[in-house]
Write a structure and sequence with these properties.
alpha+beta, Immunoglobulin-like, L,D-transpeptidase catalytic domain-like, 4-stranded antiparallel β-sheet
Length: 416
């Protein structure tokens, strides 16, 4: 009997522990239920949106299915300036692609209509670090981003383009943009696409190659007076020939002055100077002699010298002449055609005889010091880029690449 109460007490205590354990488990379960309910954010419908819920639906914060790929890979060096950069998206569409160099200059690009890819609109600069930031969205609108950095190659061989006219200059209506490259170009399309010539007021401007090292730009007709022209040379990184890259990035601006065209009639031996459509002076001239006639055609003044030396040996005339002080000389062709002052012929020669070695001569004084002579007047009233047209000479038309004389090609020839 003494042991029974102890046993009963033990049993009661044991039952109490069991009941307490059930209560603890119930409390724990309730707490877990509260926790799940709190994480679920409310009723069962909301739970279906955020977790596996009643309908086992997608998780709102799950990763985007869109995959962004950037080539070249992050950290790449010695990357080609053309054809290497491309951004693509799988299982989604690109919504943002930002590419910029280390100075923050953006790279323009083209996004595919379906949003699947992006490529730069032009070549990249050489020896330059670029950063890429791209974002794509999947069908559920969830975003996936990619950020990379790469550096383009450092070229071993380079080229530049020597251009005319000069930045900030005012030139005549016949002045083309002429660029001579230091290396022969075998990829002309890439080089030409890297040069942009625009005009204000707007006019169509097209380029034409003379050989593989010269590219000129001009409109169909002479520039309008007052036109402002901008030339953007974006040659840095352009592969002009295998392994040879441009290293120029420059903007050149110039202005077209008043419209002046002088017409030389080799038969009547006169030159009429028209400015803005009106004849402002008629000047007696002497053109090329019968054995050394002057080229016909439209010629552009490319250089001016108040006094210069002319040696026949430099243009194929041997020792026929060597005049050390030719006054008021303006170049019309690379081969040596000038319009210049002449002090050694008699005054009666001008307007009556053609006696030159192919140049157009105007009466002048030795030393270029007399501003009243016809040659001095024409020199002082002409600027680089003015046009001199020669007609009625018993010679052929000048070649368009002999000087800045592309106007001797039709627009159809120029643009083909």
């Amino acid at each position: 009997m003494n042991g029974q109460p102890i046993s009963g007490a033990s049993a009661g205590a044991g039952r109490g522990r069991v009941r307490g354990g059930v209560r603890l488990r119930a409390l724990a379960a309730g707490a877990m239920l509260l926790l799940v309910t709190a994480c679920g954010g409310g009723d069962g419908d909301d739970a279906g949106k955020s977790g596996q819920g009643k309908g086992g639906g997608q998780v709102e914060n799950s990763a985007s299915q869109a995959v962004v790929t950037v080539l070249p890979k992050d950290g790449a060096n010695d990357v080609a300036t053309s054809g290497a950069l491309k951004v693509t998206a799988e299982k989604g569409k690109l919504t943002t692609v930002e590419v910029a160099d280390s100075k923050g200059t953006p790279v323009e690009g083209k996004l595919a209509a379906d949003g699947s890819s992006w490529e730069p609109a032009r070549h990249l600069a050489a020896a330059t670090q670029y950063k890429v930031h791209a974002i794509a969205k999947d069908a559920e609108g969830r975003e996936s981003a990619k950020d990379t950095t790469f550096t383009t190659l450092v070229p071993k061989n380079t080229f530049v383009g020597h251009y005319t006219p000069e930045d900030g200059s005012t030139v005549g209506v016949g002045m083309p943009v002429s660029i001579n490259f230091t290396r022969g170009i075998t990829n002309p399309d890439a080089v030409e696409n890297a040069i942009k010539v625009t005009a204000e007021p707007n006019v169509e401007v097209q380029g034409h190659w003379f050989g593989n090292d010269r590219l000129d730009f001009r409109p169909k007709d002479y520039w309008a007076a007052g036109t402002k022209v901008t030339v953007e040379l974006n040659l840095d990184g352009v592969e002009g020939r295998p392994g040879v890259y441009g290293k120029q990035k420059k903007t050149v601006k110039f202005t077209i002055g008043r419209a002046q065209v002088a017409t030389v009639d080799a038969s009547s031996k006169t030159m009429k100077v028209r400015r803005d459509g009106k004849v402002i002076r008629t000047i007696p001239i002497t053109a090329g002699a019968p054995s050394t006639t002057t080229y016909n055609g439209q010629m552009v003044i490319s250089e001016k010298y108040k006094v210069t030396r002319m040696n026949g040996a430099t243009v194929g005339f041997g020792g026929e002449y060597d005049i050390k002080d030719v006054p008021h000389a303006m170049r019309l062709s690379t081969s040596g055609t000038f319009v210049h002052g002449n002090y050694w012929a008699s005054a009666g020669t001008f307007g009556s005889s053609n006696v030159s070695h192919g140049c157009v001569g105007l009466r002048d004084a030795r030393g270029a010091g007399d501003g009243s002579t016809p040659a001095a007047w024409f020199y002082n009233n002409s600027i680089i880029g003015d046009v001199v047209v020669v007609k009625n000479s018993k010679d052929k038309q000048i070649q368009p690449d002999n000087g800045l004389n592309g106007w001797n090609m039709s627009w159809e020839e120029w643009t083909k």
